[in-house]
Specification:
Order of helices and strands: HHHHHHHHHHHH
Radius of gyration: 23 Å
Largest sheet: none
Helix content: over 70%
Oligomer: single chain
C-alpha cells in the first residue's frame, strides 16, 4: 500500500471510529427504550393499528351495556357499575395479543435477524416491543374509562382508586404479553399466532366474572371461574375502584405477574435465541 493510500485509510478510520470518542455500548434500559420507541414509530406511520384500541373498546362497552344490562342487572345504570371494571380488564388483556402478532411479522420479514446481530442486550428487542405497547394499553384503558364516565360509571374509590387499578392492570398486561411472545416465536405465520391466541383468550375472558357474577353460574363452573387469573384481576380492579382495595387480592395479582414473567420470559428468550 502506498503512502498516499495509507494516509487516506487513516483519515477515513479517524473519522469513522475516533479512538478517543468510541461510543459506549447501550445498556439494558437504553436499548429497551430505543426498541420501545421503534414500536411507537410504527404506530405513527401506520395509524390504522390504533383501531383496536379506539373503536373496539367503545363498541364493546356500549354493546354489552345496552344489550345485556337490563337482562343481567335489571337496569343499564346498575350494570354499568359492574361492567366497566370488567370490560376495562377485558379490553386491555385482549389487546396484548397484538404484541405477539407484531413480533411474528417482524420475524417473518427478517427484521429481527438484523437486531440479533447488534451489540445490545439480547432481550432488549422483546422487552422494548412490550414497553412500546404500553402506550396502546394506556390509550385503550383511558377510552374505556371515559366512555364509562359518560354512561354513568362512578367509582367510589375516586381518582386514587382508578389510578391504582390502572397501574395494576398495566403490569398484568405486560406480564401476560410474554405468553403471546412465546406463541409468536413458535408459529410461522401471524394468522396462526392470532388463531392460537384467540383460542386461549376466549375461555379466559368469557369464563370469568367480567360480565356476570359467578354465583349465577352452575356450581361445577364456579370453581374454574374463581381461579381464573382474569377473574382474580377483575376482582382486584373492582375493589380498588370501589375504594375497598384488598391487600390479598392485589398480592395475588402480583404473584400471577411474577409467575408469568418468570416462566414465559426465559422461555421466550430460549426460542428467540434458537430462531433462525
Amino acid at each position: 500500500m502506498t503512502t498516499t493510500a495509507q494516509d487516506q485509510s487513516q483519515k477515513i478510520r479517524s473519522v469513522l471510529v475516533p479512538a478517543e470518542e468510541r461510543p459506549a455500548p447501550s445498556g439494558a434500559v437504553s436499548a429497551s427504550l430505543t426498541y420501545g420507541w421503534r414500536a411507537l414509530l410504527k404506530i405513527k406511520h401506520i395509524p390504522e393499528q390504533l383501531f383496536d384500541v379506539t373503536v373496539f373498546p367503545i363498541m364493546m362497552t356500549v354493546m354489552f351495556t345496552y344489550i345485556f344490562g337490563g337482562a343481567i342487572a335489571g337496569s343499564v345504570d346498575g350494570y354499568v357499575q359492574w361492567l366497566i371494571p370488567g370490560i376495562f380488564v377485558q379490553t386491555m388483556i385482549m389487546i396484548t395479543m397484538y404484541t405477539g402478532i407484531t413480533l411474528n411479522r417482524d420475524i417473518s420479514k427478517g427484521v429481527f435477524d438484523r437486531f440479533r446481530s447488534l451489540p445490545t442486550w439480547r432481550p432488549a428487542q422483546l422487552v422494548g416491543a412490550l414497553l412500546g405497547d404500553q402506550v396502546r394499553y394506556i390509550l385503550a384503558g383511558t377510552i374505556i374509562l371515559l366512555v364509562g364516565f359518560v354512561m354513568g360509571f362512578r367509582p367510589e374509590g375516586g381518582l386514587t382508586g382508578v389510578l391504582m387499578a390502572f397501574v395494576l392492570l398495566l403490569l398484568f398486561s405486560f406480564s401476560l404479553s410474554w405468553i403471546w411472545t412465546v406463541i409468536s416465536l413458535l408459529v410461522r405465520t401471524e394468522q396462526a399466532a392470532m388463531g392460537i391466541s384467540m383460542f386461549i383468550m376466549m375461555p379466559l375472558t368469557f369464563a370469568s366474572n367480567i360480565f356476570v357474577d359467578p354465583e349465577t353460574m352452575p356450581s361445577w363452573l364456579q370453581g374454574a371461574v374463581e381461579v381464573n387469573p382474569v377473574s382474580v384481576v377483575v376482582t382486584a380492579i373492582r375493589e380498588l375502584m370501589a375504594g375497598m382495595g384488598d391487600f390479598g387480592s392485589v398480592t395475588l395479582v402480583l404473584i400471577y405477574c411474577a409467575v408469568l414473567v418468570g416462566v414465559f420470559g426465559p422461555v421466550s428468550m430460549y426460542f428467540y435465541n434458537r430462531k433462525s
